[in-house]
Amino acid sequence: MADHTATDTGHDHTPGVFQKDEKVHGYYHVLGLALKELLIEKDVVTAEEVREAIELRDAISPATGAQVVARSWSDPDFHLRLMADANTAVTEFGINMGSTVLVAVENTPEVHNAIVCTLCSCYPRALLGLPPSWYKSRDYRSRVVREPRAVLAEFGTALADGVEVRVHDSTADMRYLVVPMRPEGTENLSEQELAALVTRDCMIGVAVPNAPQT
Amino acid sequence: MNVEFAPGDQVRVRDDYPPGHIRTPVFIRGKTGTVTRVFGEFGNPELLAIGRDGNPKKTLYEVRFKQCDIWPDYDGPGTDTIDVDIYNHWLEKL
Q: Residue by residue, what is the 3-state secondary structure of A168-185?
């Protein structure tokens, strides 16, 4: 065979129909795997504990944050508690922010908030789960602080010139949650129905929630 | 020693480029903004990153910059802003 690659199976295949091997693991991937194996070998953690920790992380979805926003819309006292001390307020939902500080920032008719971490990918994972890949991309991180209105427009979010766009760069120990404005025409919705309107992107601040279509 | 600032204070971000794990984004170094919140004291990330305990702690501030002060060709209203969390040793009083 002229071309001996990682996909060489030692026997003939119809060319081009089978998948090539994935590329060799990168340096940090190998480092991570080695660290995990060492910790298990030395009985610091068990493989089961590692899996459980990953499951716990994966179990968090933006629905958690949406519950917090919906409560804030329907309960004025909770809204005040959330804006004053979000870490304590979200414990009412069993959410533990750990060593980070949650800051709720509220959209108003005058101010629209959006969140980024220009240095890495800081994100309120305890409320929204894992960040979407675009949030971690160099594109989003560099552009949303440079031309936020153009980026928001690409998400379908057009804002009037009279609205101040305020981008929060989470460079340090703070994690931000955007509390969007409650859409008009949702006065009769239950807290659960309201939560269904609050998407992940609304809580990052690249989108705004809409009232349900009737 | 922690220099203390209060909300409303005008501050300038150090225009400095030392090596290491720096949590002050380059795009605001040397720029002027206004302190909007005082978050309290946190471990110094530059020391935490090299395995130290982060002491002495640094006071963390939220500083608001006008987009048009950061990007001279900013394509948007002059009222648009960006808030960045900055530790006190990166801020200078004006």
A: EECCCCEEEEEECCCCCC
Nearest CA in chain A to B82: A167
Active site residue A170: no
Q: Which residues of B touch A169 (CB under 8 A)?
A: 25, 82-85
Give the pLDDT confidence of A192-207 residue by residue, as tens digits. 999 999 999 999 999 9
Cα-based distances in Å from A78 to A23, A74, A104, A174, B80: 50, 8, 12, 20, 29
Instruction: Report how far residue A168's alpha carbon sits from residue A206's, in angstroms, rounded to the nearest whole number.
Output: 12
The rounded distance, in Å, linking the Cα atoms of A151 and A144 is 6
Q: Does B77 touch chain A (CB under 8 A)?
A: yes
Neighbours of B94 (CB within 10 A): 10
Tell me, what's the ipTM? 0.96
What is the pTM assigned to this prediction?
A: 0.88
> A153, A208, A211: which is closest to A181 by C-alpha?
A208
B 10-69: CB under 8 A from A: 23-25, 27, 39, 42, 45, 60, 62, 64, 67
Chain A, 78 to 107: residues with Cβ < 8 Å from chain B are: 101
Å between B94 CA and nearest CA of chain A:
23
Q: To which H or E segment does residue B38 belong?
A: strand B32-42
Tell me the C-alpha distance between A84 and A106, whole Å: 12
